[in-house]
Amino acid sequence: MKRLSVILLVLLLSASLFAGGESDSSQASSSDTVKIALIIENTIDDKGWCQAMHDGIVEAQKQLPGKIEYSYSEKMAVVDAGSIARQYVAEGYDLIIGHGAQYKNAILELAEEYPDVSFAFGTSSEIGPDNVFTYMPESEETGYLSGLIAGMMTKNNIVGLVGPVDGGDSARYNRGFVLGVQEVNPEAKILVAHTGSFSDFVRAGEVASSQIQNGADVLTGSSQQAIGALRATAESPTALWLGQDLAQLSTEEGMAKCVAASAYNYAAVIVDIVEKLEEGVKGGECIPMNFNNGGFVFEYNPNLESIVPEEVKAKVSEAIAAFESAPGVLSNWSSVDYNTL
After folding, report:
1. What's the alpha-carbon Rg for the chain, to the nearest Å?
2. Which of 6, 64, 198, 264 has the highest CB neighbour count under 10 A?
3. Distance CA 15, CA 20 (A)
4. Distances (CA, A) of 66 to 56, 70, 85, 275, 292
């Protein structure tokens, strides 16, 4: 009886450790299958950062049928990442992704502990150890598109930017937005504020509400916290929103207020990594994301596309064509200084 109790306890602990995780049982495991585990701080349906990666892996499964077996763990604090990752290692996973720069130290420690397993984290442009991939969305491109639309569609000549923290791909998106606004409307006032968090929906809503009260009539923002700013925008009778994830177009608030949205196509990253793993490359590379390599997508809201002037659409199309033709078009994004706005 005592032995049975111990066995039951072990099983219960294992089950609780993987709470929130899911496996795609439709992908049969074999020696040719790459087992991928995703660790995220929020949820796979957060209409932002975490959902984008989840959707990208699911899309990669479709592009590489039978190649990918996939599991995920949601709402994983940094302190819990190591434990869940070790469980995935024990289960024979080939690639473990800590989706967020906050997981960097945990991933690097795990990579040293398990040199035969590949790991990945992002966003980061640094080159990690031989068994660690990084990925960096060059999101100045998507921010620039939002800036073009905001600068041309604002009626008050005031636009708002609700950022999480001034770092990583969020910093690139924000500065690309400023460049886009200034390209088409150098006289427009750009209100920039950071919540200090990637997931504080409440604070993001408060910041957006303040910007709207100060005259901003077109707003944008990045990361999962942006959904709070979108909701605040929806409460305004006149303000409009520009999204950084296509999932925002399908929310109740987004259908009414989100004019257009860009999104990260993480399938491009996942397919690239899977192909590298099959070639024997286990890490030591940074995977970029941009329009040139299919890492970004852009769509208008079908419910609001009619209010977008044709000259705005033409300007956006021109910019996308330039981005698709070559990477690094907005190499000056880092020169944007908020203090001069």
Report:
1. 21
2. 264
3. 10
4. 16, 11, 23, 14, 27
